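stage 2 :: seqdesign
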């Protein structure tokens, strides 16, 4: 059974490097308990989006959320939610080469 609580969310996410639009208006949500694949061609913004989600980069505009915590407004809470010592029961595994995210309880 899938929990209806949203664990990962991108809201109008943008990341520009000069004139290059690495991430261009991505919006999505992933519910708790969902196995999620983030796939696309080279240069589509997968790794940049995951770097923003992991608080390793800041969006140009928009926001991303982990367990309800904003990567822009509360990056420390996001980091804690992603660790074994975190406040959340959710654990994340990032594979930046394939932009894979594993969400498990």
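stage 2 :: out
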């Amino acid at each position: 059974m899938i929990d209806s609580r949203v664990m990962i969310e991108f809201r109008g996410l943008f990341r520009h490097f000069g004139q290059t639009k690495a991430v261009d208006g991505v919006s999505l949500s992933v519910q708790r308990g969902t196995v999620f694949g983030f796939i696309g061609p080279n240069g589509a913004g997968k790794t940049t989006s995951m770097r923003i989600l992991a608080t390793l980069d800041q969006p140009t505009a928009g926001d991303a959320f982990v367990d309800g915590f904003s990567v822009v407004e509360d990056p420390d809470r996001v980091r804690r939610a992603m660790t074994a010592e975190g406040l959340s029961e959710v654990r994340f595994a990032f594979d930046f080469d394939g932009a894979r995210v594993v969400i498990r309880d």
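stage 3 :: structure notes
- The longest strand covers residues 6-17.
- Residues 46-53 form the longest helix (8 residues).
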